[in-house]
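Progress report, Aim 2. The chain analyzed during this reporting quarter is listed below.
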Amino acid sequence: MRIYADSSFIVSLYVRELNTIAALREIRSINTRGDSIYLSQLARLETTNALHLAVFRHRVTRADLTESLKVLESNIEAGAFRIVQSPNSIWKDAEQLSEKHVPTFGYRSLDVLHVANALLLNAELFLTFDQRQRALALAAGLNAPDLNA
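Predicted structure tokens for the chain:
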């Protein structure tokens, strides 16, 4: 199964927060099936940036950050996460999503790019804790379960 995850999902695996239990539950299910999660370069950047922000916001220590980044890289090397390059067509696809959905619902550019990446990957499952991004994913025809439920 092709699974796309945004940074809100991935960060929940490395920083203890409200969504961590739900993220771990989903990861266990994915691991049981032997599936991998695809991360765009955007999701990887947002994840590492969010982990650094957690230090800035005093939610984790620098030692925690170092360990989280080490485990993330280890998980990527082990194949739990697969980093994918976005083709140049991502921009046209994102513009089309923006034209179709943003005037009515006001999504952010990064939300549009995540959904465009998932569509280009032909993702069968879109994982996010961001409810606005989830709504865009659903509007674009992706399977985006409510992980907060």
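The chain has one domain: 2-139. The chain has a mean pLDDT of 94. These observations will guide the mutagenesis work planned for the next reporting period.
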